[in-house]
Write a structure and sequence with these properties.
The complex is a heterodimer.
Chain A: H1 15-52, H2 64-71, H3 73-106, H4 112-120, H5 127-138, H6 143-151, H7 161-186, H8 190-198, H9 203-232, H10 235-239, H11 246-257, H12 262-286, H13 308-337, H14 353-361, H15 363-393, H16 399-408, H17 414-425, H18 440-464, H19 468-477, H20 481-509, H21 513-518, H22 527-535, H23 541-571
Helix pairs in contact in A: 1-12, 1-15, 1-16, 1-17, 2-12, 3-7, 3-9, 5-7, 5-13, 7-9, 9-12, 11-12, 13-23, 14-15, 14-23, 15-16, 15-18, 15-20, 15-22, 16-18, 18-20, 19-20, 20-23, 22-23
Chain B: H1 3-10, E1 14-23, E2 26-36, E3 41-45, H2 52-60, E4 67-72, E5 75-76, E6 87-90, H3 102-112, H4 117-130, H5 146-158, E7 164-168, H6 176-193, E8 196-201, H7 204-210, E9 213-218, E10 221-226, H8 228-233, H9 238-243, E11 248-250, E12 253-256, E13 261-264, E14 270-273, E15 282-285, E16 291-293, E17 303-315, E18 319-326, E19 329-336, E20 349-355, E21 360-362
Parallel strand pairs in B: 3-8, 3-9, 6-7, 7-8
Antiparallel strand pairs in B: 1-2, 1-4, 4-5, 9-10, 11-15, 12-13, 13-14, 15-21, 16-20, 17-18, 17-20, 18-19
Classes of the chains: A mainly alpha, B alpha+beta.
């Protein structure tokens, strides 16, 4: 038995030639990736931006579209509303998250696991699905208000207009802020706090002067991301019938007036500008301020024991938040099983008919979703692995730029990407007929491009865990570059790749911003779009809710699988550090 | 009153009595009793896990003993929270707040005490001047070297003029090349201020060179308290003896042959033992207490002679350390090195002479 692989039997070409071949292969890959990014990200976005500066008809450079925007009451109000809703969503998500984060990091609390579970529940339901259920439960004629009206004669207008959007988004994003706050607090070196106590500070002064400033950068980074996601969200306001916000306005204008309407592109530029600003703010807040320290023994704030009263209050708070967080899930489930449910706290009767309707009449909604999400995941991790390898392991010029461009997709709202594809590729005809923009493959590609930043970071992190010396050892023994990547690097990255794929799959399966723009008919539609269509009519609410439940199940299962898979892998003693 | 005078007049002694501290079933401090005098530079010395940092943190207020009391200047402090104890503590990681400038870091304690602005400015300047960092007030901690960070941490505690100063392994995060200079600087500052200081370390050289008295700890128990020289020359047990410097330990048994007590090595050699030593003790002496001699020469009076074979040697610069295999075990002999002097070759049979008064008999 010999360690030498079968490459030994092949005549090895001269070293320079082999080096040339490796470099050629790498450059070819880089070029292909660049081409993909240019065609499916850079050009569409640039098209949208230039369209905003073009006069309708003549195509010459002008700022008149921006003047028109500024003069239009509805549009100005939409801009203000979008900013308002995003900021308030962050605020309320923080209000929900802060006490829980404080309890888990400051006290020895047995219910910590419960809080962690609380944290996952909202994340598996896409906000637009939650919106419907919240409307049913908390709307003007929803369950809660009907009961309150009967018992106390009062009505809480929590779902009216913008408040409804804020409410839904806060509940959906509060776990994100919770994790973010908990991590920021936990990363504070306990010695920082003790040093302050030693010098005379305690209580609120201690919090204000030491704890809060040290937790701030991490918090700003997290909340900026939430701001961007809420700002760009198209489906939630639409489903709640709130149209005077930026993203819905862009969608409505393009679908009603057409892709030549310049105002839609002005809105797109606004969306991009604010997304870029928020992301810049996130990186600025954390730059040079890595306040987390590596220290031996006892990181994080010192924990206290809880008194009886403290514990009672904590559990009360958790139950209250749990109720709010579970409400959309329960509401959606009930609606999917309800025969008739209106103007009453609970449905009149229950049935499985809606699920059967879906599987009988529109099974393509589910199959399309699976196809699109799988493709999006594959695109994400393939490009992610390739780009991270090119950046970290090769000397290909401009590899870093591929990383930057791929990451810039974070600042491109789904609405804008959709608009870009429509504008750029509407006139491109496919060989078998039909516009490229209407081709179902574009939906999958759009989803893949949107997921790319996250998949790229997951693959990058996974690659960092694989030491270069492992590849070098393989090549030393006789494996070609390709073989060593295929047999050594990629298998060792599997954990990160799988995690990247699963999260891409889960988020692509329930995406509705780019999807809304690109879907031409229900034949091509994934279930998120199907949900939107069904909900419009009273008879379709049941099936729509059934689709929502299916969406939650898909995301929930994916989340569970990726956690379980990662946990299993980290439990294995497969550390690569060869020293 | 000058800054230095203020600190000097305010400092007090510390009385630690009957401290017991357990984490669940684990007893970390067992019946600790120590008296530290005002103005003294005192060390808690011991290996990892001996409880020295736990004891320091108990004095500072970051953990709570189950029993006992700590009196600072006659005032019981165990019932007080950390922010009311008027103690200054320098943490091992320095714990400088990264979001504040050096100046703000040093001013923090004074601001907490509600001092007027003029007073704060003056005291911060004094404190920074004392550690030689007046020109760095506007910098952030991340822009300072390790040594500078430590001086800021010191200035921060001195600024509030505490009664007592606690230092938790202040030198362990510094480069080895810096440690000697920094510990001299700390000593000079302590002498100048006359501030009662407790210094926690696991390094006996640090403790020996700068502290007035040392408490050696092991497994939560204070083994011995004394000046560095007392501990080195007259350790009470083998642990203290070998912790404070290289030592030779030989097994044997204590017997009485009627007139006097003798210590007998397994090989048969016997040595007279001063009265009062207990059974189970072992023979203990320092490498530098020995002289090498030719085996043929007779041993002088008052000297114990061991016979052995040179197995290896290490050149230490000031001395040559011979490793000699004897019937009692391996013995290290440090022989001062004089320029050009020949070394005894390996496998040579030599006699090792140890003066009787340089031998201790110590229990484990």
């Amino acid at each position: 038995m010999s360690l030498i692989t079968k490459t030994d039997a092949v005549v090895r070409p001269a070293f320079a030639v082999r080096l040339g071949r490796i470099a050629l292969g790498q450059y070819a890959s880089a070029a292909l990736i660049a081409l993909f990014l240019i065609v499916f990200l850079v050009v569409p976005v640039l098209t949208v931006i230039t369209a905003a500066f073009q006069a309708k008809g003549s195509g010459s450079f002008t700022l008149i579209n921006f003047y028109d925007f500024a003069l239009n009451d509805l549009l100005r109000r939409s801009l203000w509303n979008s900013l308002y809703v995003s900021c308030m969503a962050v605020l309320w998500a923080t209000v929900l998250a802060l006490p829980l984060a404080y309890i888990t990091t400051r006290f020895e609390f047995k219910g910590a696991l419960l809080i962690q579970t609380l944290g996952v529940i909202p994340l598996i339901m896409p906000p637009f699905a939650g919106a419907i259920a919240m409307q049913l439960l908390f709307g003007r004629n929803g369950s809660i208000n009907l009961l309150l009206g009967d018992w106390f004669g009062i009505n809480i207008p929590v779902m009216e207009g913008l408040s409804g959007v804020i409410f839904v988004q806060s509940v959906h994003y509060f776990p994100f802020i919770l994790i973010n706050l908990s991590t920021s607090l936990r990363n504070i070196d306990s010695a920082m706090e003790e040093a302050a106590q030693n010098l005379g500070a305690h209580g609120f002064r201690l919090f204000r002067r030491i704890v809060f400033p040290l937790a701030m950068p991490g918090y700003i980074a997290g909340s900026s991301l939430v701001f961007v996601k809420v700002f760009d969200d198209l489906a939630t306001p639409l489903l709640l019938n709130v149209q005077d916000m930026l993203a819905p306005q862009a969608f409505l204008r393009i679908t009603s007036i057409g892709i030549s309407d310049p105002i839609g592109y002005v809105i797109a530029v606004m969306l991009i500008i604010f997304s870029v600003f928020a992301l810049w703010l996130a990186s600025f807040a954390t730059r040079g301020k890595d306040y987390s320290t590596i220290q031996r023994g006892g990181g994080g704030l010192s924990k206290r024991q809880m008194t009886r009263v403290d514990a009672l209050f904590a559990y009360g708070l958790i139950i209250f938040i749990l109720a709010i967080v579970l409400a959309p899930h329960i509401g959606l489930l009930l609606l999917s099983l309800a025969t008739i449910w209106s103007y009453s706290p609970l449905p009149d009767d229950y049935t499985f008919a809606h699920y059967l309707t879906i599987f009988d009449e529109s099974p393509q909604l589910i199959t399309n979703t699976l196809i699109y999400a799988t493709l999006a995941g594959v695109i994400g991790v393939t490009l992610g692995t390739a780009i991270s390898y090119l950046v970290a392991r090769t000397k290909v010029l401009g590899a870093q730029w591929l990383d930057y461009i791929a990451m810039s997709a974070l600042a491109v709202p789904g609405v804008v990407l959709g608009m870009g594809y429509l504008r750029t590729y509407y006139d491109v005809q496919l060989p078998w007929g039909g516009s490229l923009a209407a081709f179902w493959g574009m939906i999958a590609i759009a989803l893949g491009v949107r997921r790319l930043p996250y998949a790229l970071r997951a693959c990058s992190a996974a690659l960092q865990q694989v030491s270069v010396s492992l590849e070098e050892a393989a090549e030393n023994i006789g494996a070609t570059k390709t073989a060593s990547i295929r047999r050594i690097v990629v298998p060792l990255m599997t954990g990160g790749i799988v995690a990247g794929f699963v999260t891409s799959f889960a988020t692509a399966a329930v995406e509705l911003s780019a999807t809304m723009m690109l879907v031409q008919s229900t034949a091509n539609a994934p279930l998120s779009y199907g949900l939107y269509v069904f909900i419009q009519s009273p008879a379709g609410r049941g099936p729509g809710a059934a689709l929502g439940v299916i969406a939650v199940i898909i995301v929930g299962v994916c989340t569970y699988l990726s956690h379980a898979y990662l946990e299993r892998r980290t439990a294995l003693p497969a550390r690569d550090d060869g020293h | 009153m000058t800054y230095v005078d203020a600190i000097r007049s305010k400092t007090t002694g510390i009385s630690i009595r009957n401290i017991n501290l357990s984490y669940g079933p684990l007893r970390v401090l067992k019946d600790v009793n120590l008296e530290i005098r005002s103005g003294e530079f005192f060390a808690f010395l011991g290996p990892s896990g001996c409880g020295k940092t736990t004891l320091l943190r108990a004095i500072a207020g970051f953990n709570t003993p189950q029993t006992g009391s700590v009196l600072i200047g006659g005032r019981e402090v165990l019932s007080l929270p950390p922010w009311k104890r008027d103690i200054g503590m320098v943490f091992q990681s320095y714990a400088l707040w990264p979001h504040m400038s050096v100046w703000k870091n040093v001013a923090f304690g004074l601001e907490e005490r509600g001092q007027p602005k003029v007073e704060i400015n003056q005291r911060v300047d004094d404190a920074l001047g004392l550690v030689g960092l007046t020109h760095l007030g506007a910098r952030r901690p991340s822009q300072l070297s390790g040594g500078q960070q430590q001086r800021v941490a010191l200035a921060r505690t001195i600024a509030v003029q505490p009664t007592v100063l606690l230092l938790d392994e202040p030198l362990s995060n510094l480069d080895a090349s810096l440690r000697v200079q920094v510990r001299r600087d700390i000593l000079a500052m302590q002498r100048r201020l006359g501030l009662t200081t407790i210094f926690v370390t696991h390094d006996q050289e640090e403790a020996n060179t700068i502290c007035d008295r040392i408490a050696v700890m092991k497994d939560g128990v204070v083994q011995q308290v004394g000046t560095p020289m007392e501990l080195y020359d007259n350790p009470v047990n083998l642990f203290v003896g070998s912790f404070l410097g290289t030592a030779n330990i030989l097994n044997g048994s204590m017997r009485s042959n009627g007139r006097e007590q003798i210590f007998e090595l397994p090989c048969g050699s016997q040595f007279p033992v001063p009265a009062g030593h207990i059974d189970g003790a072992k023979l203990f002496f320092r490498p530098q207490s020995t002289r090498l001699a030719m085996v043929e020469d007779a041993a002088r009076t008052g000297v114990v002679r061991l016979k052995g074979c040179v197995s290896h040697k290490e050149f230490l610069g000031a001395a040559v350390r011979y490793g000699i295999r004897t019937e009692g075990g391996e013995v290290f002999a440090d022989i001062p090195h004089a320029r050009g002097e020949a070394q005894v070759p390996d496998d040579h049979i030599v006699g090792i002479d140890i003066p009787l008064n340089r031998i201790n008999y110590l229990p484990a």
